[in-house]
Every structure is written in structure tokens, then in C-alpha cells.
Amino acid sequence: MTRVILPPHLRTLAHIDGEVELELNGTPTQRSLLDVLEAKYPMLRGTIRDHVTQLRRPMVRFFACGEDLSHESPDAPLPDQIATGTEPFLIIGAIAGG
Predict the structure, then answer these.
(1) What distance in Å separates the CA atoms of residue 75 and residue 55, rounded to the nearest whole number?
(2) DSSP bridge partners of 91
(3) What are the Cα distances from residue 16, in Å, to 6, 28, 62, 70?
(4) N or C, which end of the chain is more exposed by having fewer CB within 10 Å?
């Protein structure tokens, strides 16, 4: 099982307490993870990635195993620790100010 941690506002939107566990088939990638997450929680469609382009929204970041994966290819394999569930995939809302 792949573990996903969402920011509080997305957990509230999806009525989720704690982290999400997803069953991914094949090699886990950002795209496959987000496809399964949005299929399980359709209210999240368009909040993490754009409806049309399927690209990550600018104010959202992806982290795994202490690394920022936000600018990695959506089809690049995720680290083995994500696939095995020993480490969570974190989706974080970026903070901007001025």
C-alpha cells in the first residue's frame, strides 16, 4: 500500500482523517498515484493538478524520502520506499507571501 499525506484543507474537502492508503498497480509514478487518488476521492480533481493539462498546480509541492519531487517528470518512478509504504508521499500546499 502506498501512503499519501494531504494538506489539511484537502483532507477536509475529501472528508479524510489522517493519511490515505492507495493500491497502485505497476511501477508507481506521480501520475499513477494521482490518478488513483482522484478516482478514489473525485472531489480532489482539479485541486492538485489542472483539469485539462494534468500538470501540478503551481502552489502544490510533492515530497518523498526527504526530497522535493515537484519538478520531476510525472511518469518518473517514485522511490521504492513509497511503493512499499515505508515512507509516505507528501502533497503540500506551498506558502507564498509578499
Answers:
(1) 12
(2) 62
(3) 9, 22, 19, 23
(4) C
